[in-house]
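Q: What would this chain look like folded?
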Amino acid sequence: CKNWGGAYRIPGDMQIYNNAIWTLEPGVTLAFAPAAGLQMEAARLDAIGTAAAPIRFTSYGSPTPGAWDGILFLDASFNSSQLSNVVVEGASHGIETFKAAPTIANALIQRSNTGIYVHCGQMETPLPGTSVSYGAGADANGVDSFTDETGCSYP
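A: My prediction, written as structure tokens:
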């Protein structure tokens, strides 16, 4: 995938897969339609913003909880995704992982039903500089909840 900069309206689900590498430039904004989301399956997302120009994942209009699906990382075979200096807002699950462990630092996850949701995997904690608000039961590391790991193989 080529590098993306600027602002984009995403009208439906967006899927990146098959070992693709998608790089978002500092300051880019992705606004997702209702019920749309970003799915990274066996692919890498490099979303490295700056303090002055964070990368924003949001909804069309006002970012109210559940206004869009969120970011889903699947498949531990490609675990090198990085999110730094990003804002994720108005999602159902801000960041959700299934057998994947992206690196997250300096993230603000707000106005989402769940901040970070981890299925069948491990996420490195603490998440430096990361803040989760409006999530249910966020712990000191900014991770909202973990599902039952029974029957899951770890990366």
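The two ends are 25 Å apart (CA to CA).
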